User: Fold this.
Amino acid sequence: MRRFAHRVVELIRLIPFNPMVTLWDDDKKRKPAEEMGGEEQGSKVADRDAIVRVALDYFEGWFDGDAARMERTLHPDLAKRSPDDAPAPGELEKLTAREMIEATAKGVGKTRDVPDRGIEVEVEHVHREIANVTVRSAVYVEYLHLVRTREGWKIINALWQHP
Assistant:
């Protein structure tokens, strides 16, 4: 198995001792980090880490042809769209979770792999059960929406284009 370095872009750094760091709580009110309990901060860090892992599994699973890994990341109601490879100008290519899993199993992503994938994951916002993530790589730029399910974070929407 190939290993690749990944850069995770952090928009909010969680520094417990820094009173200037502010995080969103579930009531949409801002509160300084020192007012948040350790458990609450730990939960936000765990969510962020889980979201990054889903995004990396999604990209790496695609490039490695690992359908099981891909399936773990996708919500069954996935809507994946792109203006690239669309049937006509102004239209979108549309893929479902099942189509993505099947394409991964067939090795379509392996044919698009490059030696330096350059995967960067930017968790832009997490609000209770939803998250917004941008993933940039040498091959794709994708905007992902994730939702928390009983099985963990899943990708529900994806909009992509080649860089």
